[in-house]
Amino acid sequence: MLALTGVLPVLSTPFTDDDRIDTTALGRQIDHVLAQEADGVTLAMVSEILRLDISERRALAEATAAAVDGRASVITSVGADATALATALTAHAVEIGATAVMANPPLTTTPSDEELLSYYRAIADAADTLPLIVQDASGYVGTPIPLDVLATLLGEYGPEKIQFKPEADPLGPRLTLLHDLSGGTARVFEGSGGRALIDSYHRGIVGTMPGPDLVPTLVSLWKALRAGDDERAYRLQEALAPLLSLVSSLDSYVAIEKYLLVVQNVIPSARQRGPVSYRLDSDTAREARTLWERLHRTTALTREDTIE
Predict the structure, then answer these.
(1) Contact call for residues 26 and 281 (beta carbons, < 8 A)
(2) CA angle at 266 for the pair 261 and 268, rounded to the nearest 5°
(3) Residue range 228-268, pLDDT digits in tens
């Protein structure tokens, strides 16, 4: 089985003008991120899965697995408001050869700890031998998952089966608490788009799940951290931060990400599924492009410095 580690971008779901999933553009995006040395791909909230129906979620996962074609790991999101739907999506992920599944908690209710444990146990069991990444998406939506719930799941299934993507604030301290509760065994992925990558790396993460629009920078940053080159890592983080500061919500993340993928000729359209809470205006688009171009130059320069 492919290792779950490194840079695992969350794919953007491209749509045609008639609002269908553009599988051709999806394939180009996957080729793009793998050519930039991403270690795998992920389908999650920034993929707009909450605005897809069940058949579309299955079709998106199938198209992704087919386009990757064994070249890298594939993580598919199976979280849902009903346990039966989540386990059905999980069984489908097993069928199509996914590397792992990831699940956010239900978003339209606040279940008790025992109900939440029952939900995640059902998904873990339906996943057969696949790892389950428990996603606390409360940095964008929902409420934080109690740390006791995470510790219980880890104790019952072990660190290879149950892994984590914490996004609740304060991110760093909660990450450290999770590691302390697990005796240092928890496998954790950074989910801030790279904003907190350096701090999270020093707290023991095993990978990051950024957007597909910034993969070259995040790959360079990850390599710098792995090499112990903090100077290069901080130069990249400092160039990355202004661009990520434009992101204030899930919808703004999607809008800016898609715009930058269009700028890079990766996908043909920045169309989002509506209704949305954020639309990219011309001034923000101009600023995002300027900051991306500056980031692109900084990334290239740090790579040249490494070669020299």
Answers:
(1) no
(2) 85
(3) 999 999 999 999 999 999 998 999 999 999 999 999 999 99
In this prediction, residue 305 carries a pLDDT of 62
Q: Count CB-CB contacts under 10 A for residue 230.
A: 14
Overall pTM surpassing 0.90 (yes/no)? yes
143 pLDDT tier (thresholds 50, 70, 90):
confident
Which is it for strands 162-166 and 189-190: parallel, antiparallel or unpaired? unpaired
Q: What is the chain's mean pLDDT, rounded?
A: 94
The full 3-state SS of the chain, as one line of letters, equals: CCCCCEECCECCCCECCCCCECHHHHHHHHHHHHHCCCCEEECCHHHCHHHCCHHHHHHHHHHHHHHHCCCCEEEEECCCCCHHHHHHHHHHHHHCCCCEEEECCCCCCCCCHHHHHHHHHHHHHHCCCCCEEEEECCCCCCCCCCHHHHHHHHHHHCCCCEEEEECCCCHHHHHHHHHHHCCCCCCEEECCCCCCHHHHHHCCCCEECCCHHHHHHHHHHHHHHHCCCHHHHHHHHHHHHHHHCCCCCHHHHHHHHHHHHHHCCCCCCCCCCCCCCCCCCHHHHHHHHHHHHHHHHHHHHHHHHHHC
Burial pattern 263-286, b for ≥16 Cβ within 10 A else e, equals: eeebbeebbbeeeeebebeeebbe
Label residue 308 by pLDDT band (50, 70, 90).
very low
